[in-house]
Amino acid sequence: MDILYLLVPLSVALVFLIGAVLWFALHSGQFDDLEGPALKILADDDRAGKSEPRL
Amino acid sequence: MNPADLIRGGREAADLCFHCGERVPPGTRYAVRAGDRWEPVCCAGCEAVASAIFQRGLADYYRLRESAGGAPQPESDDLKLYDDPAVQRAFVRRDGDGREAQLLLEGIRCPACAWLNEQVLAGQPGVLGASVNTATHVATVRWDPARARLSDILRAVREIGYRASPFDPAHARAVQRAERRSALARICVAGLGAMQVMMYAVPAYLAGEGELAADIAVLMRWASLALTLPVVCYSAWPFFAGAWRDLCTGRPGMDVPVALGIAVAFGASVAATLRGEGEVYFDSVTMFVFLLLVGRYFEILARQRAGRALRHLARLVPEFANRLRDFPRSLEPERVAAAALEAGDVVLVRPGETFPADGLVAQGFGAASEALVSGEARPVAKSPGSAVIAGSSNLSSPLIVRITRVGPETLLSSILRLADRAAAQRPRLIRLADRTASWFIGLVIALAAIAAWFWAGEDPARVVPTVVAVLVATCPCALSLSAPIALTVAVGEFARGGVVVARGGAVETLAKTSDVVFDKTGTLTHGELRLKEVLTHGAAGRERCLAVAAAIEAASEHPIGKALVAAEAGTALRAAEFRNVPGAGMEALVEGSRYRIGTLPFVREISPGPVPRREPGQDTVVWLGGESGLLASFRLGDELRREAEEALALLRSLGVRVHLLSGDGENAVREIAWRLDIPFAEAGATPQRKRQLVAELQKEGRIVAMVGDGINDAPVLAQADVSLAMIGGARLAQQRADAVIVSQDLRDLPRAVVHARRALRIVRQNIAWAFVYNLLVLPLALAGALTPWAAALGMSASSLVVGLNALRLERRPRRKTTASAAPARLAAT
Q: ipTM above 0.90?
C-alpha cells in the first residue's frame, strides 16, 4: 500500500498537467472549430511536395 | 430535392450543371472533364471554375460537398485597392515579416467548400499558411508581402466562385469568443477535478469499516483538497462573484445559494481534512460545479446564437464607393473606401452594386432591392429625391446619390441597435421569474438553517450534507434560466422572420394579445397613391397615355406624379420645356406636341372637345390632354396591401379580434373595413379618442396590440399593451414601438403572434418544470435523503432540461440564407 504515497500525488500532478495542456489547447483556438479539422483528415492531399504549412 | 444529390445521383441528372446544379440550357455545349468522363456544365463561368478545381487536383471537393457550388463572381479591379497599405491598415496584422488577415468567405455552404478554399488559399505562391473556420466562414491567411499581393489571394478565391472580403474582427465577436473560451476552460478544470476527486472518493465509499488504512484515507483527502482548490477558486469563481454582486445590490439571485452551498461544503471538508476527522464532500463540490458550469455553457451558446441572425446584416455594406468629387461639374468617379465617406459626399452607384451609405438620389431613375435590409421583396423605384438605404442594392440603372448618413447613423445600424437594446432589457416575465426566484432563495436559505438546527440535535454528522443538499438541490436556477433562455431564442427567431423586437417585453405581451388595433388606414394600405385605373378618351391607347404622363411627371416631386411614374412600364419618352403650375398641373412638350396633365379646367385650357362623364368617388382623378383633345383620365388612390386580407384572416384564425381606429375620413375607413371584414372600425378618431377606446378595451380585460407607423400617436402607443410599427426606411431610427415589422409584410404580424405564443408556452413549461422539480426535491433534501452529489445532478439536469426545451424554439424550417429572405419565409409558413 505504500506505493499509494507515490501514486496519489503523482495522479494529482498528472491532473494538473492535463489541465495545463487543455488550457493551452483551448487558448490556442483548437476548440473554436469542431467540424472542419475532422474533414481535413479525410480530404488532405498527402502527395509529396505539397506540404504547405498551415496555421 | 437538393441539386447536389442529383449530381451525385448521376444518370437522371444529365441536364443539371455539374458545378452549380442549375439547369443546363438546351443546346449548351459546355462540359468539364471529371476523372474519366465528361460532365455537363451550364455556362462558361462554371466550366472555368470546375476546370480550375480539377486542374488544382481538388476533385475531392465534388465528392465531399453537400450543396452545389456558386457561380463565379465577375472579375473586378476593386481588388487592387486592397493592396493599398492605407486600406490594409484596417484589417491586416503584421506578423514578423509576414502579414496576416482574416477574410470573410461568402458562398460557403458546407465543410467541403471550406476545405476547397483552404486548399486554394494555401496553394497560392507566397502564402505561408491558411486555415478556414467551418463554423464562422472566416479564413485566416498569412502571406509574405514580398512574394504575394493580397489582391491575388482574393482573386484566387473569386476564381473558384466564392467571395472573400476582409473580415473586421468585430469587437463583439472577440468578446463572444473570449466568453466561450473562458467558460470552456472553467468546465475543463471542473470536469478534470471532478473525475479525479471521484477516484479518490470511491475507495472511501466502498471500503467497509476499518478496511481503508487511516493514513491512506488522509492522503486521499489531501489529494482531493489539492484538486478541489482550483475548482473552487477558478471554476466556481463566477458564482462567488455573482453572489457578491447580488448581496451588494441587496437582491439575492441564484448565485447566492450556489455559492453558499459550495462554501459550506468546501469549508466543512477543509476543516475535516485539517482536523483529520469528519466527513469530506470534495467529490460533491467538484461534481456540482462541473454540472452547473455545463448548464451555463449551454445558456451562453443559446444567447450567442440568438444574436447571429442580425449580425449578418452588418456585413452588407460594401467596402468601396465611387465618389464624384466634382459633382455636378464632372462625373469622373474616384474609388474610395466606404468608411471614408461623409455626409454630403456624392457617390455613383452602378447597377448591381450596393449602396455604401444612406442617401438621397440626386440624379437618375432606377430601382433598388431592399430585401436584405427591410425584407421588402419587390424592387423599390428610385427617382431623384428618393431615399436609398445602405446595404440595399441598385438593380437597374446607375444612380448618383448624395449621402445623408454614414456609419453608425445608417438605417442598417439602427436596426442592429434596436435589437441590441431589446436584448439588454429585462422583460416583465424575466423580472417576475427573478423576483420569484429571489423570494424562493430566501426561503431556501431559511429552510437550510432550520434543517441545520434540526439535524444538529438529531445527528450532527448529517448537518453538512443536508444543508448542502438543501442549498444545492432546491436552488431555483432552472426558474431563473427558464424565461431568459426561451425569450432570447425567440427574439433571434423573430429577427429571422422580419420582426425586430425593440423592447424586451414585447414577445410576452404579443403572445397574450387578444385584440389588434390598426392605428391608421395607412397600415393596411400602402400609404401612398397608386394608379388604380386609366380611362382613355381619345385615339391614344392606355400605354401611350401613361408613357406621355410619366414623361411629363418624370422629375415631379408630387405624390401624383410619382405614382404615375411608378406605374409606367419603362418606355423612354423624354419631355422638354416643363412648366409647373402649382395647384393645377404640369405642361410639357413630348415629341414636339404640347400636353397638359392636372385638373380638368387646367387641361381644358388647351384641349378642346367634349368632356366625358365621370363617376363621383373619393379617389383622386387627374386628366391628360393634348392640343387635339382630352386623352385620358387617371384614377389614383391608396391601395390595400396585397397581403392584408390574408394577414387579417390569419389573425382571426388565432382568435384575435381586429379593430381599425383611424383619423381618416368616413368613406376611406368604411371601404377598408368592408373589404377586409373588420367589424370594429371607427373613422375620424383623434389621438385622445383612440387612447380612450384602447383603454376601454383594456378595461374589459383585453390585451391590445397597436399597429401603427410607430412615430406619431405616442400616447396611443403607450396606452396599448404592445405596439408594433410597420416601417422601414429612414424613419426606423425615431420609432417608439415595442417591435418593428421591418419586412413591411403584414403577414409577419400573425406569424409573430404564433411564434410569441410558442415562446410563451415554452417559458411556461420551463417555469412549471422548475417549480415542480423544486417542490418535489425540497422535502427529500430536508429529510436528509439526498446526498449532495445527487442534489447537484438533479439541479443541473433541471437546468439543462430548461435550456434544451428553450432551444426547441429554433427547430423549425429556416431560411437557407439571408439572401433568399422573402420567398423562403413565405414558404416556411
A: no
